[in-house]
Amino acid sequence: MHDDRVDVVVVGSGNAALCAAIAARESGARVLVLEKAPADMAGGNSKYTAGAMRFVYRGNGDLIPLLRDPADPRLERTDFGSYTAETFGADLLGFNDGRPLSREQQALIEGSYDALRWLASHDVKFEPIYARQSFEKDGRFVFWGGLTLAAQHEGVGLVEAELTAFLRLGGEIRYEHAVTDLLTEGNTVRGVRFETASGETGEIRAGAVVLGSGGFEANREMRRRYMGENMAAARVRGTPFNTGIGLQLAFAQGAEPHGLYENGHATPMDLHTPEYGNLDLPHDERKHYRKICYFLGVMVNARGERFVDEGRDFRNYTYAQFGRAVLEQPGHVAWQIFDAKVDPLLYAEYRFHDAHFVEAETLDALIEKLDGVEDKAKLRQTLAIYNAAVDDSVPFDPTVKDGRGTKGLALPKSNWAQRLDQGPFKAYPVTGGITFTYGGLQVGETGGVVHAEGHEIPGLYACGELVGGVFFNGYPGGSGLTSGAVFGRRAGTGAARFAGMGTEAAAA
Fold this sequence. Notes:
Mean pLDDT: 93
CATH class of the largest domain: Alpha Beta
Number of strands: 22
Number of helices: 15
Helix content: 25-40%
CATH superfamily of the largest domain: FAD/NAD(P)-binding domain
Number of domains: 2
CATH topology of the largest domain: FAD/NAD(P)-binding domain
Low-confidence stretches: 502-508
Cofactor: FAD
CATH architecture of the largest domain: 3-Layer(bba) Sandwich
Shape: globular
GO molecular function, one term: oxidoreductase activity
Protein name: Tricarballylate dehydrogenase
Domain FAD-dependent oxidoreductase 2 FAD-binding: 7-479
Keywords: FAD, Flavoprotein, Oxidoreductase
């Protein structure tokens, strides 16, 4: 047993938590980060991401200050386009099921570019996502979908850069320290209780606590309770440590659930992906369990039926929903089918040495190899009807929503529809992998957790996946990490101010 005293305790060590820690430390607070995982597994879900961040920008000039290599010669022939606040808002509204933009979404939009500039000021910089977000057209790199930059070395690189920034500022992190309870004085949170991996227990007294410990996606029983049996069957794409402890600690202080608990980010994954994410793989291999090129082919279930409009929108806007759609199919499985025309366009994850697929020279032969398909005759019919419905009069163009769709199908393919007619053909079996949950807590304008009675709980702040109301029925890719930065920065600054370490102390 030992005791400590700091100004701000941050629970967790992912992107949002580290942004909170950096913000609190630059405000002058003594900051301690407590992380349940050992050092090699720390970093929360952020380490498992591709490191992309969506934000408002006006053009190439806004991106240059954010770049790790502003002298990259490719920049001279790159069209990043622009991404306005209005477009970001429209993209979020597309997943709101008729809801207006929430207060949290408005804060995300308004704070997105400032958060990236702020990170860059701490030497957390980025590089263009040429491999996944651009196509070369007429000698120029054309970016699509409003998503342009990612951290060098993806999520691992982002977390490492943020941790380096925090430590450079004089912060401290302790691994294998699981927070088990909050300390209170009256109705004010004044620290945490913890238990180490060796069973040691102790207390940390603090002026404020920031919860940045992620959602509940790694807790199968909480997934079943809030999201249903299909989501209980999901693979967990990220850390096994996001078990909902932050929510439980906040509920014990009177916080009320906020946001859409039944939904979460779920991505199509290789059927044989591990139960949890695997940090032992190099960063450029972990992502290869994803299978998100369905927009270039068709996706069918065990009944031999298509079940989503694969070309409804850029995959940035659909992959977080289509993982759940796969989980809702019989056996929680589907197959993505492609022909030779699009094979060169498939991302590296489809050529990964551990990618599972079957291949055949004809569609009939391919179908015979799909052991899990219950009705092969129905699948032959589905593919024949799809091929006959493709509108060949519209040119195929993967850099835009090309309008090359199908005609007369009850479930259309709205863009990038091409006949499956050139062998060899490939089919990739997929399931759904959950990335993070959408339900969380309500936070105030400085990141304070709101009590069920409407007031903020003194001394308690939250960020990252714990902020509810940011996403509802999906999200535009890259928004999650940006949300972590926006709300993490806010929570860290608010916690430092509450602890008595406001801007006056920082200036002193």
